Amino acid sequence: MSKVQYLPWWWAAGGAGALVGAELAVSLGPAGWAAGLAFLLVSSALLSRGLARRGAIRLGPANAVTATRSVLVGVVTALTAASLTGSAVALLLLPLTSVALVLDAVDGAVARRTGTATELGARFDMEVDAFLLLVLCVYDARLVGGWVLAIGLMRYAFVVAGWMLPWMNATLPPRYWRKVVTAACGIALTAVATGLLPWAANMSLVGVALLLLVESFGRDVVWLVRTARPGRVSWGDAVNRAGDDLVSSPQDLD
Question: pLDDT tens-digit profile of 192-202?
Answer without folding.
Answer: 999 999 999 99
